[in-house]
């Protein structure tokens, strides 16, 4: 499963990128607004930084303007994927943009029938929002499982399932088990994925025991060892 980071914050993207685990980025109008910076400049900077798909969302609500926005966004950088809401007009725009060879991410998916329509319209990604479903008392991971099954049953459907609205590390594991192709993860959750008290405790103990070793200079010892073997 690929890992995208779900943010428009450059500092967060830079930090996560330095870990070497980021395959792409997703943004949405709310995330862009939160940063208070120019949309296109931000998207371009992200796309230069991360060598992978970067979702940038159209805001028009009618297909012709969505297509116009999408074609322009796709020209900003080769990494841009045009994000489109799952509406009648959005699906129409998705079909047209896919026909033009523009990669698309159909967003705001809350039921499997919507995912099927997006796939038929040639979407590159479909984004089911699992956290927002959980908030309604509906199991979001079940939706991922259902969409993955539908896509596996019809090999003509080439759309990638991009699990969105992820709220915790358990969501990440569950969507990976369910067969999602991608999970887009907020920075906060990404940091939580590192953590386990047993890791910290184990590391502390290793360091305590290591302190009793006479020569603790690994670099010096190794360098001498390797030089002696030349
Ligand atoms: C990403 O593509 C979505 O816009 C995002 O995951 C939504 O997450 P939220 O429900 O936490 O806003």
Structural summary, described in words:
- Strands 1-2-3-4-5-6-7-8 form an eight-stranded parallel beta barrel, surrounded by six helices.
- The chain has 230 residues and is of the alpha/beta class.
- The chain is elongated and about 70 Å long.
- The protein is 53% helix and 16% strand.
- The chain has two domains: 2-192, Alpha-Beta Barrel (TIM Barrel), CATH 3.20.20.70; 197-229, no CATH class.
- Erythose-4-phosphate is lined by residues 6, 26, 28, 107, 127, 129, 131-132, 164-165, 184.
In the CATH hierarchy, what is the superfamily of the largest domain?
Aldolase class I
Distance between the termini: 43 Å
Q: Please give the number of β-strands.
A: 8
Which structural class matches the secondary elements?
Answer: alpha/beta
Spatial strand arrangement across the major sheet:
1-2-3-4-5-6-7-8
Which cofactors or ions or other ligands sit in this model? erythose-4-phosphate
Largest sheet: 8 strands, parallel, barrel
Number of helices: 12
CATH third-level topology of the largest domain: TIM Barrel
Short characterization:
With 230 residues, the protein is an alpha/beta fold.
């Amino acid at each position: 499963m690929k890992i995208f980071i779900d943010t428009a914050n450059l500092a967060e993207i830079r930090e996560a990128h330095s870990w070497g685990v980021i395959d792409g980025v997703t943004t949405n109008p709310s995330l862009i607004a939160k940063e208070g910076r120019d949309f296109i400049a931000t998207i371009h900077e992200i796309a230069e930084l991360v060598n992978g798909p970067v979702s940038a969302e159209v805001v028009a609500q009618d297909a012709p303007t969505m297509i116009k926005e999408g074609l322009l966004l796709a020209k900003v950088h080769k990494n841009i994927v045009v994000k489109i809401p799952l509406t009648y007009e959005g699906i129409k725009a998705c079909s047209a943009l896919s026909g033009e060879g523009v990669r698309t991410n159909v967003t705001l998916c809350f039921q499997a029938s919507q995912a099927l329509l997006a796939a038929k319209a040639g979407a590159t990604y479909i984004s089911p929002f699992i956290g927002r479903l959980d908030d309604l008392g509906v199991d979001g991971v079940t939706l991922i499982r259902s969409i993955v099954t539908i896509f596996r049953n019809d090999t003509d459907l080439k759309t990638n399932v991009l699990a969105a609205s992820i709220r915790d590390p358990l969501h990440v594991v569950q969507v990976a088990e369910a067969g999602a192709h991608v999970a887009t993860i907020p920075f906060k959750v990404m940091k939580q994925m590192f953590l386990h008290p047993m890791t910290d405790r184990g590391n502390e103990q290793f360091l305590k025991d290591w302190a009793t070793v006479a020569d603790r200079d690994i670099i010096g010892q190794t360098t001498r060892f390797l030089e002696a073997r030349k």
